[in-house]
Amino acid sequence: xxxxxxxxxxxxxxxxxxxxxxxxxxxxxxxxxxxxxxxxxxxxxxxxxxxxxxxxxxxxxxxxxxxxxxxxxxxxxxxxxxxxxxxxxxxxxxxxxxxxxxxxxxxxxxxxxxxxxxxxxxxxxxxxxxxxxxxxxxxxxxxxxxxxxxxxxxxxxxxxxxxxxxxxxxxxxxxxxxxxxxxxxxxxxxxxxxxxxxxxxxxxxxxxxxxxxxxxxxxxxxxxxxxxxxxxxxxxxxxxxxxxxxxxxxxxxxxxxxxxxxxxxxxxxxxxxxxxxxxxxxxxxxxxxxxxxxxxxxxxxxxxxxxxxxxxxxxxxxxxxxxxxxxxxxxxxxxxxxxxxxxxxxxxxxxxxxxxxxxxxxxxxxxxxxxxxxxxxxxxxxxxxxxxxxxxxxxxxxxxxxxxxxxxxxxxxxxxxxxxxxxxxxxxxxxxxxxxxxxxx
Length: 441
Ligand code: SF4
What we know:
By secondary structure, this protein is of the alpha/beta class. The chain has helices spanning 15-29, 54-73, 84-96, 112-120, 166-170, 178-190, 215-225, 243-251, 268-273, 280-293, 312-325, 352-375, and strands spanning 6-11, 34-35, 44-49, 78-83, 100-104, 125-127, 148-152, 154-155, 174-175, 195-199, 230-234, 258-260, 298-305, 329-334, 381-389, 396-401, 406-410, 421-429, 434-438. The longest helix is centred in the last third of the chain and has 24 residues, at 352-375. The structure holds iron/sulfur cluster. Iron/sulfur cluster (SF4) is lined by residues 157, 159-161, 164, 166-167, 201-202, 237.
């Protein structure tokens, strides 16, 4: 079915939203909508939003303000808010911002065709119910061409960490059926994808509702199904990281040796206040177990600076833990109070400038650690998956190592294309990037 209406989608936040946008494209393409890459010519503009921190929401408010110029030129333009802001502040947006005609939450995307049709007839609409069962299992995401594909294996989260909006914005945990995931991986192999990343807020607690498959079982089945493919996964939760999973990674070379393991803080008092359900000692044990089973593994993390009640001593314990673990990389943020979360009810006691000061110390330390970690790569051989030309120099191309490190190499003759696996010897590095030359092994 075709219709002449053009849709422009802008995606913010995490990979879950990137994957959800592909599901939204699939749902709307069935109604014949066409997708375009610029808002100016659109009949429908959808913003797939993030609500993890305050500035994520501020970004959307600013974006809506500058999209107003397009609305002035096209009064029939339909603007919709998707993603985590929908549940968190969708009603207020719909009531207070004339631009917004549709609000749809992460479990309600099947209703988008109807909401859009109604909105063209002047009826604004909102659908933000959370579901205990919705996994869009029967919908094949409309993926953009490329070598890497995201595959959402579960939705929602049951952990309710004190600072996090995800369980409120995305609902309770539910896993997709492993057999349908495996057949999707087989199709992706046929379509020429070379890498799949299994996605979930907390993939370690994946459990197939039909077979009972655990995450490590699903990971091994995925590796077996993905011919000539690399398998990655994100995000783990330390409390559910199991020796079985680490052993499955160690014995299967197609499962990439990179683990993203958010620690958030190095202080047991803060971890308790955050309801993270593990201690720093347990976290350190886990990183030792990972490194003893997978010596070349890279471990990255997330860290929050300035959580309510965090003392200077707590902050120093975070720096000490970073020194001890030597993460290969980290996402580092200041604590941002989020309405509806447990922490929101606690006084945000660490002053903004002190939060900024602690965050800077964490960022500086991590930059030194990443620099050292990448310096140690010089002289090593790595098989990389070639992705695209380097933005800076078209004669150089970019790819990633099995350990998820961005690597640049010369490809003047164009001998290598996206999707190729190439062996490189690392010749130099910065804290963020490796540089290598092609070697025959
Ligand atoms: S594990 Fe915690 S931080 Fe992660 S999505 Fe769930 S509630 Fe949020």
